Amino acid sequence: MEQMEDNLTIEISADESGSEVTVLRITGALDFSSIAMLSNFFGKIAAENSGYVIVDMTDVISMCSAALGEFMGYRQKFVEKGGDLVFAGLNRDIRSKLTLMGANKIFSFFTDVRAAVKAFRWNYKKQSRSVIVAIPSSLKLVPPVRQLASRLAKQNGYGRRDAFRIETIVDEVCNNAVEHGINGRGFDVTINMTIDKDKFAINVSNQSDPEKIAVLKELLKPTAQSNHVGGDHKRGRGLALIRMLSSDMKVDITETDTSVRVIKIREEG
């Protein structure tokens, strides 16, 4: 769907994500004379019940305050329906002017349409991202894994406190896996980290050491962990710390495998 008027072209296209995402591509100058044309397109978008609109401004050379007001009005309508209206591909001059007017406090700006679609999947579809790492059963290899967990959290918008707690949880769970699992060549510790907008899930698995299973089960008892919090048993303190920092913790122990699943709910915006 495309419409042209003087030096302005507007086109509507559906993103590959489906009917929930509409891309409004604009070419030319958005001046006062373009208001009626914008209103016409937004009326069509609203009628199609699209919840998330990406306005591709890559080829827009200028935008007047009246056009910005039009965008603000329709964004409010999409937000009320649980969606949003965002800008993508703003050139430096337009972005600077919009920021000076405070529009950056109302609209989200993205470098391009692809980045805006990723934000939709993350914020509205609650799409998760996973990283799986397998390391030899060695304490020396735990620090890089916990640092990876911290970076993964920060890169996906988690605050410093959440990232630090996630790093601490991963450190303790991995240390536990190494200390209470079988060590040596061929006995890896597998760490599966899954992150979405609301939570960070850590699943660590290793081969059980038959000689240590009884000790590990004893340490998992709440009374045992409480007794070790102020004592010298590092792993007892570690398990208590994991429970304190996490939102949920589950441990499965068999004669062959041990897995620990921890969920940390996001606390910071």
Secondary structure layout plus pairing:
Layout: E1 2-5, E2 8-15, E3 18-30, H1 35-47, E4 52-63, H2 65-80, E5 84-88, H3 92-100, E6 109-110, H4 113-123, E7 129-136, H5 142-155, H6 160-180, E8 188-195, E9 199-207, H7 213-220, H8 222-228, H9 234-245, E10 248-253, E11 257-265
Parallel strand pairs: 3-4, 4-5, 5-6
Antiparallel strand pairs: 1-2, 2-3, 7-8, 8-9, 9-11, 10-11
Helix pairs in contact: 1-2, 5-6, 6-9, 8-9
* CATH-scheme architecture of the largest domain: 2-Layer Sandwich
Give a quick account of the main beta sheet: strands, pairing sense, barrel closure: 6 strands, mixed
- The percentage helix is 40-55%
Estimate the mean pLDDT confidence. Answer: 86
Q: Give the CATH topology of the largest domain.
A: Heat Shock Protein 90
Number of helices: 9
Total number of beta strands: 11
Spatial strand arrangement across the major sheet: 1-2-3-4-5-6
SSE pattern = EEEHEHEHEHEHHEEHHHEE
Regions with little confidence, pLDDT below 50 for 5+ residues: 228-232
**Top-tier CATH class of the largest domain:** Alpha Beta
**CATH superfamily membership of the largest domain, which one?**
Histidine kinase-like ATPase, C-terminal domain
- Domain unit count: 2
Radius of gyration: 26 Å
Q: What is the end-to-end distance?
A: 38 Å
